[in-house]
Design brief:
five-stranded antiparallel sheet; globular; seven-stranded mixed sheet; binds flavin-adenine dinucleotide; 21 strands; 711 residues; 25 helices; alpha/beta
Length: 711
């Protein structure tokens, strides 16, 4: 740090310490203002210019040092100088003070912050360069963020100082008028009864209403900025056009039709999207066949001398397609047409916020919902393009079972499929560059899965980064880096499962300027609304979750908000989100795990129950796994639950309901669970928690009571 920086830092810190040590805050409250009112008025009458100068300097110092008191100073401005003079003085003093605070923050911290977090701030910096003035204007107009925080944070960005000053002065002006006006009313307050005077009530109501009003104005300005260039049709063909008929799009259209809106659903490929055609449904069907084979291999566990099975890979895949066909009618054009949805097969292109083009037709619509999903991500590893790799999209067309399969990726999809193919008799090598599988879960949970995979013969290569692929004479070759060493893996087929990329390109979003996030998803607010107020997004394309049930959850909000906004809209509720990975053992979770609780600094207690002790699990030969519950220390409040074991994805439902409706473990313990079921594990973990929280002192007295009764 340079000498001048150190000097400024010392001066700022000394001034702030002095403020608190000498309790200067006592002069910045309404009571003091009232007490001194007569003296100040008298002084102002005789020394108007020096009163203004003293007030101005104090205001600038308070705001420049980000001390508490700016709001009271503003009220005082109104009380002393009246509305017009007060507004002028406060407007300049607050803008100059804010700019000084901005400069101090910039001088002391900007270089360090930009150096340290430069790469992650890249988008923020770009945004500020492009739109900084508008963002600052909205923050000034809508006081959602404290005044001093805006000054300090903006100092860290590349916004120009003159622009900061100018926008601050203009943006704060309406708020300044409202506060100074309230100050003029405070000055008239002579008695307690005056508190109920209409002038004072109106002034303070204005302070309360102002942020809402300002927010509305900002929303209108934002809407105009993006929609202004596009002529709005006088009438619309329909209320809603939904692009994509996967889980998100289907539910959006279903809800819209159910509430009698005119809705068109456009799908370019297959109704049902990923979940039905290439995701949940085929993968779960394949898992079922693979599980059957694993049971045959475990015949001795179930009391059989031996068991053999004859099967063809192609027949198993045929069953997968039969399952898809069985479920297809649920998502079909016929069903949705019957429900009142206008279904269109074709590729949609957004040509304006009010127009969608499909099959050469232009449909006008009041709102659009983007539900275009995601596709498998293929990392640009040298040689991968020569591999004819499989992904979750193409896999379902595989006719011959690979002998040696490499599964790239240790996430849920990679894990589910790696285990399937191993059980189907392939030699599977699973490669993950991070230190464990299923990295979102707690380490011991990943370990359950990894241990089982290794027992079943999967070569799990964690901490292995795939560096290149090549075609050998007799096999394909993957080179990985592990602990600085090169590891060579020979294989026949490659399955890439390293994540999914949102579908945001090629249908008009870029041309329109719909903003996307760093993760590549369409950026949405808490109402599932994009930066275009009449364009919403849900499902995988919006993130942050990539599940069918979260897509459906978001779809409700997207549909209802699109159809009823601005009259009524709902914030999406992400408070209780469950999911499961359908490996064996299954892993299911709702709420926080230990990793996340630590990351978020949330205090927690852990209670576990081992499913190896559960009667039904023992009878079923599935006596493995755990129920792990995180609760608030000393309180019966569930923070999160992870279950590993047979049917974990079903068992977790009880905790999902409990968390959603704020029921604790006492309630689960007090509920009858059928014997013998796996669900009893939920009750038993509640019992463990209860035992650990038994009231020891009370029990000592109860023991004495019983001893006394023995006579
Ligand atoms: C192997 C695998 C297993 C999975 N297992 C599970 C699971 O067990 N449980 C779970 O909850 N989730 C699972 N998922 C995730 C789940 O499938 C997705 O989260 C879900 O399908 C997302 O739905 P969506 O509607 O957002 O997108 P999608 O289902 O991808 O639907 C998007 C649709 O939009 C269409 N589209 C795109 N662009 C256009 C355009 N311009 N015009 C017209 N149509 C367009 C596409 O053709 C597609 O049909 C799994 C995924 C995979 C890959």
């Amino acid at each position: 740090m340079t000498k001048s920086k150190i000097l400024i830092l010392i001066a700022v810190v000394a001034a702030v310490i002095a403020f608190f040590v000498f309790d200067l805050g006592q002069y910045f409250n309404l009571a003091y203002l009232k007490q001194q009112k007569t003296d100040i008025e008298a002084y102002y009458a005789t020394h108007p210019w020096s009163t203004v100068a003293i007030y101005f300097v104090v205001y600038v110092v308070v705001t420049a040092l980000s001390l508490p008191g700016a709001a009271i100073m503003t009220l005082a401005g109104g009380a002393i100088f009246g509305l017009s003079v007060g507004t002028v003085v406060v407007s300049f003093a607050s803008s100059i003070g804010a700019t000084l605070a901005f400069l101090v923050s910039r001088f002391l911290l900007r270089d360090w912050v930009q150096q340290r977090f430069g790469s992650s701030l890249k988008r923020v910096n770009e945004g500020i360069r492009r739109d900084g003035a508008f963002y600052l204007f909205t923050m000034r107009l809508v006081p959602a963020f404290p005044f001093f925080v805006v000054n300090l944070v903006m100092g860290l960005t590349p916004i120009r100082t003159a622009l900061f000053y100018l926008v601050s002065q203009v943006g704060m002006l309406p708020g300044t008028v409202v506060y100074v006006n309230a100050g003029t009313q405070v000055a008239k307050l002579e008695s307690a009864a005056g508190i109920l005077s209409p002038g004072l009530i109106i002034s303070f109501t204005l302070i309360g209403v102002f942020p809402l009003l300002a927010k509305k104005i900002v929303d209108l300005v934002k809407a105009r900025r993006v929609l202004g260039d596009y002529p709005k049709p006088k009438t619309f063909d329909r209320n809603l056009v939904v692009i994509g008929a996967g889980s998100a799009g289907l539910v959006t259209a279903y809800i819209a039709a159910a509430i009698k809106a005119d809705v068109t659903l456009i799908e370019k490929h297959k109704m049902g999207g990923d979940c039905l055609n290439t995701g949940c449904v085929p993968s779960k069907a394949l898992i079922r066949s693979a599980k059957y084979l694993s049971h045959i291999r475990r015949a001795a566990d179930f009391g059989m001398k031996s068991a053999t099975v004859d099967y063809d890979f192609a027949d198993i895949m045929a069953r997968v397609h039969r399952v898809i066909r069985r479920i297809e009618p649920h998502d079909s054009v016929e069903r949705y047409t019957r429900l009142g949805v206008d279904c269109v097969e074709g590729e949609a292109k957004i040509v304006s916020p009010y127009e969608v083009e499909v099959n050469g037709r232009t449909l006008t619509t009041r709102n659009i919902v983007l539900a275009t999903g995601a596709r498998p991500c293929v990392p640009p590893i040298p040689g991968i393009e020569d591999m004819e790799y499989w992904t979750s999209d193409s896999l379902w067309d595989m006719h011959r079972k690979p002998k040696r399969l490499v599964v790239l990726g240790g996430g849920p999809i990679g894990c589910e499929l790696a285990q399937c193919f191993a059980r189907l008799g392939c030699h599977v090598t699973q490669v993950e560059m991070l230190p464990r599988l299923l990295t979102r879960e707690d380490p011991e949970i990943s370990q359950w899965v990894q241990a089982r995979f290794q027992t079943e013969g999967i070569d799990v290569l964690i901490n292995h980064k795939a560096k290149s692929f090549a075609l050998g004479d007799a096999a394909k070759i993957m080179l990985c880096e592990h602990d600085g060493q090169e590891v060579r893996v020979e294989f026949d087929e490659l399955l890439v499962a390293v994540g999914r990329k949102p579908n945001t390109e090629g249908f008009g979003l870029e041309e329109l300027g719909v903003t996307t996030s760093r993760q590549g998803t369409v950026e949405v607010n808490e109402y599932m609304q994009t930066n275009f107020p009449n364009i919403y997004a849900c499902g995988d394309v919006a993130g942050p979750y990539q599940f069918t049930h979260t897509a459906a959850h978001q779809a409700w909000y997207a549909s209802v908000n699109a159809l009823f906004s601005p009259f009524k809209r709902f914030k999406v509720d992400y408070s209780v989100i469950p999911w499961a990975t359908f490996t064996e053992p299954e892993v299911a979770r709702v709420g926080l795990n230990e990793l996340e609780a630590k990351e978020q600094g949330v205090a927690y207690e852990v209670t576990t129950y081992g499913i190896d002790d559960l009667d039904r699990a023992i009878a079923d030969g599935e006596d493995h796994g755990v129920v792990k519950v995180l609760t608030v220390p000393g309180k019966d409040k569930i923070l999160g639950v992870t279950i590993v074991g047979e049917h974990a994805g079903d068992l977790i439902a009880e905790f999902v309901t409990a968390m959603k409706y704020k029921l604790g473990l006492n309630k689960i313990l007090g509920t009858i669970h059928i014997y013998p079921t796996l669900a009893e594990a939920n009750k038993f973990v509640a019992g463990e928690w209860k035992r650990a929280h038994a009231p020891q002192t009370l029990l000592t007295w109860v023991e004495r009571f019983h001893t006394w009764r023995l006579g």
